UniProtKB/TrEMBL annotation:
Signal peptide: 1-19
Organism ancestry: Eukaryota, Fungi, Dikarya, Basidiomycota, Agaricomycotina
Annotated SUPFAM superfamilies: Cupredoxins
Organism name: Clathrus columnatus
The UniProt record lists the keyword Nucleotide-binding: no
Region (Disordered): 145-179
UniProt keywords, alphabetically: Signal
Stretches assigned to coiled coil: none
Protein name per the record: Cupredoxin
Length: 345
């Protein structure tokens, strides 16, 4: 694959040897999700971030912290990657970038209104993601601010940015309209749901997309995090069943639930081969009350206490491991945008 060749050249040129991490980010998704999932990652120099474009028609476009919904000159841009709503099987277009420094990289979708709907993403946001997101959403409040006309007209040379016509004033969608939330299960091989805890309204859909291995999402209860709610209280709960995903799959199975009330809802992965995923913290919550004793953190801690192996230490991810190359300005040259002209699959 050309992609590997490029990267290997870059690494060989610097003598930089380190196991790179390949981060997967889903762009959009089933049910009209207007989001990048996950919406932020920490990465070290040499890591790869692969964006997989799902339904319906999005971009991955570089912007800046101060102006979240405006492409920066010379920044990368995937262009629009349309995928029909009923196309659930792919293969989906993909674009990869190689992380060239540990400074933050800010990204948005330049489909009309998506940025002000919060469709933004960051690599190494360094604690500033919430501010970036708020600034993106705030662009929807001003009728005169759209990313399209102002930004593209003022920059004389933005060869990688496809020009678009001026869009009408954005309208902020009512926050009470049902939303689809996309949760990645086992993304990047991790024993986790990403995001692991969310706030959702009645009528919202939560779609779990199974990215790797062989997991479930199964409803449990706060006091008994790693057992079916049905077994502990008789209440029938949801259960996706096992969703095995062979390595190299192009097709990620999904399971959806509808939120019927705003009570806290608890769930876990019931895989216990070779060891309990739930006991390793693979749990999920909807509408946990963070200011009560039944917070998501408390639920996760209870799962680890009841079903974990007491002596096990959770594998700490060395996201911020400093290395000699992080400060090497040369690496800027290796910020390679690999737009999905060729499918990765
Ligand atoms: C990164 O992950 C994507 C999606 O899972 C995969 O298609 C690609 O081959 C991976 N790249 C590398 C360098 O491992
Ligand atoms: C990234 O690292 C910071 C601290 O270095 C941490 O607070 C944050 O939770 C991490 N974010 C992710 C998405 O792992
Ligand atoms: C994708 O969105 C762009 C920008 O709104 C539009 O020009 C293009 O026609 C759309 N493509 C499809 C196939 O809907
Ligand atoms: C799904 O979309 C991808 C990317 O546009 C395309 O290559 C593929 O053929 C589509 N699959 C179907 C079944 O339409
Ligand atoms: C709960 O979700 C938020 C938002 O995604 C995240 O920042 C936080 O780390 C999660 N809590 C835990 C314990 O994972
Ligand atoms: C998935 O895990 C379950 C439970 O451990 C097991 O019964 C099933 O055979 C596994 N499926 C595959 C394809 O590995
Ligand atoms: C919502 O209600 C439907 C129908 O009664 C049920 O199948 C579903 O599991 C419920 N959702 C949750 C999250 O409990
Ligand atoms: C958690 O532990 C309980 C009690 O030993 C057991 O019944 C349950 O199957 C375990 N669940 C998982 C997912 O490991
Ligand atoms: C969350 O818990 C706190 C403390 O128990 C309580 O005062 C508050 O009303 C709860 N919030 C909701 C929305 O239930």
């Amino acid at each position: 694959m050309r992609f590997f060749t490029l990267l290997q050249l870059a690494l060989a040129a610097t003598g930089f040897v380190r196991a790179q991490v390949n981060h997967t980010v889903i762009v959009g998704g089933p049910g009209g999700v207007v989001a990048y999932t996950p919406n932020q990652i920490n990465a070290t120099v040499g890591d790869i971030v692969t964006f997989i474009f799902q339904q319906k028609n999005h971009t991955v476009t570089q912007s800046s912290f101060n102006d979240p919904c405006t492409p920066i000159e010379g920044g990368f841009d995937s262009g629009f990657q349309p995928v029909a709503e009923d196309n659930l099987s792919g293969p989906f277009p993909a674009a990869s970038i190689t992380v060239a420094s540990e400074t933050p990289v800010w990204i948005f979708c330049r489909q009309t209104h998506h940025c002000s709907m919060g469709m933004v993403f960051a690599i190494n946001p360094n604690g500033k993601f919430d501010a970036f997101l708020a600034a993106a959403e705030a662009t929807g409040n001003s009728a005169s601010t759209t990313w399209s006309s102002s930004s593209l007209a003022s920059s004389s040379s933005t060869p990688t940015i496809t020009s678009t016509s001026t869009s009408p004033s954005p309208t902020v969608p009512s926050s009470s309209s049902p939303t689809t939330h996309l949760i990645l299960v086992g993304n990047d091989g991790a024993l986790s749901y990403s995001p692991s805890n969310i706030t959702a309204q009645v009528g919202d859909t939560i779609t779990f997309q199974f990215m790797a291995k062989n997991h479930t999402v199964t409803q449990s209860s706060f006091n008994d995090p790693c057992r079916k709610i049905e077994a502990t209280s008789g209440t029938p709960g949801f259960d996706s069943g096992f969703m095995p995903v062979p390595a190299g799959s192009v097709n990620f199975p999904t399971f959806s639930i509808t939120v019927n009330d705003t009570n806290p809802t608890w769930a876990y992965c019931r895989q216990d081969n070779p060891s309990s995923h739930c006991g390793q913290g693979m749990v999920f919550a909807i509408n946990a009350n963070e200011s009560s004793s039944k917070s998501f953190e408390a639920f996760k801690a209870l799962a680890e206490e009841l079903n974990g192996t007491s002596s096990s230490t959770s594998p700490a991810k060395s996201n911020a491991a400093p290395n000699a190359y992080a400060t090497c300005g040369l690496l800027i040259n290796f910020l390679t945008v690999y737009i999905g002209l060729s499918l990765l699959f």
